[in-house]
């Protein structure tokens, strides 16, 4: 498994009250890249979305979400109209962000890049944004070609190998090589919390390279039985390693979104909750 202790919690200030927080990969801090996964504190949304909800589609007050997005944009030192988002559908479709679609979905969900669970770009000073609340947020940075991708990997996207498919799309577009890339898996639901059906457990066994590292059983006291659990993060790490990403280039967040108070969790809160954002923005590379 990739090392899990190389993440840091940072703040984005400049507003009244508590600053918003985000988790970032320490291994990426030396690159011309701003990135992180936001936490749920430091915004203006009211319960049950309190308080730094960045999802426009969850039933939160739109003005509150816009204000939260403005705060994120101010931290990135760009206008909020540049925030570039995708209409995530729990699939494996991938889109490139070009000058024509910069700012898609910044203020309206129906204006986001359609039917995409991963977006990538080489454009500098353009923030990419994907939303999560248990699914695995994956960032890929290619320092050789100064390119970045943000990926939403739910269980369907994970089984569908969406992180590797995204890197293949970057290779086609820019010449990206897996051995050059750095990857960060952000806060998401972990093995202990991700109980699944036997049918889904079998699907993961069939799709994985080393099934015993992906599927196991935990005792559930209220039912008095062992129930299957799946390790999404390890599945993605196996995929990345098989594709050629060096283990030392992979950072896995130790944060389980279902048990961490600082995270939104769709499963813990029975669907009525906000969304964290995986954000990434290429800074201008020094000549």
TrEMBL record:
Keywords: Hydrolase, Metal-binding, Transferase, Zinc. GO terms for molecular function: copper ion binding; hydrolase activity; S-methyl-5-thioadenosine phosphorylase activity. Purine nucleoside enzyme that catalyzes the phosphorolysis of adenosine and inosine nucleosides, yielding D-ribose 1-phosphate and the respective free bases, adenine and hypoxanthine. Also catalyzes the phosphorolysis of S-methyl-5'-thioadenosine into adenine and S-methyl-5-thio-alpha-D-ribose 1-phosphate. Also has adenosine deaminase activity. This is Purine nucleoside phosphorylase. It holds the Pfam family Cu-oxidase_4. Belongs to the purine nucleoside phosphorylase YfiH/LACC1 family. It catalyses: inosine + phosphate = alpha-D-ribose 1-phosphate + hypoxanthine; adenosine + H2O + H(+) = inosine + NH4(+); S-methyl-5'-thioadenosine + phosphate = 5-(methylsulfanyl)-alpha-D-ribose 1-phosphate + adenine; adenosine + phosphate = alpha-D-ribose 1-phosphate + adenine.
